[in-house]
């Protein structure tokens, strides 16, 4: 009889991908040519893009780590859902670099928010896979409901930010930031 595949390797691989993403993100930062604080401050779009993306990756990792507590078996469906989530995350350095280089131009900011849409949609897939079918003693109904509600709400807000980014990039960034704040605590409010 074959033993069930445990989720430890999935967790370790995912942690490695998150670590690489943060490393790639910082490699995109370039120091200014001049040796002044004014020159450093002139690069504020890069610093804002980097800072927000760093926090975004950290928050996604924390929530991913929290969510994987519910994994009892590394099923093929869970593995593929996780790979989809990691693929979406792998787009964060690209969208961050484009947004920073463009100095927060509308299309790159919209694309940045669209990457958040993809990340959040795949996270919703992980929620469905890990706790959607879990017995009540593993994931009580109130936890399932609140996790889905939060993920659906922020998914909608990221979609709005994607559209708003085409006309008002700073407002789109603010909307993305609001979504990040909602995920600061991996447990949904009231749990």
Automatic annotation (TrEMBL):
<comment type="similarity">
    <text>Belongs to the TMEM175 family.</text>
</comment>
<keyword id="KW-0813">Transport</keyword>
<keyword id="KW-0407">Ion channel</keyword>
<keyword id="KW-0472">Membrane</keyword>
<feature type="transmembrane region" description="Helical">
    <location>
        <begin position="79"/>
        <end position="99"/>
    </location>
</feature>
<keyword id="KW-0406">Ion transport</keyword>
<dbReference type="InterPro" id="IPR010617">
    <property type="entry name" value="TMEM175-like"/>
</dbReference>
<keyword id="KW-0633">Potassium transport</keyword>
<feature type="transmembrane region" description="Helical">
    <location>
        <begin position="12"/>
        <end position="27"/>
    </location>
</feature>
<keyword id="KW-0630">Potassium</keyword>
<keyword id="KW-1133">Transmembrane helix</keyword>
<feature type="transmembrane region" description="Helical">
    <location>
        <begin position="47"/>
        <end position="67"/>
    </location>
</feature>
<keyword id="KW-0812">Transmembrane</keyword>
<protein>
    <submittedName>
        <fullName>DUF1211 domain-containing membrane protein</fullName>
    </submittedName>
</protein>
<dbReference type="Pfam" id="PF06736">
    <property type="entry name" value="TMEM175"/>
</dbReference>
<feature type="transmembrane region" description="Helical">
    <location>
        <begin position="111"/>
        <end position="132"/>
    </location>
</feature>
<feature type="transmembrane region" description="Helical">
    <location>
        <begin position="153"/>
        <end position="184"/>
    </location>
</feature>
<keyword id="KW-0631">Potassium channel</keyword>
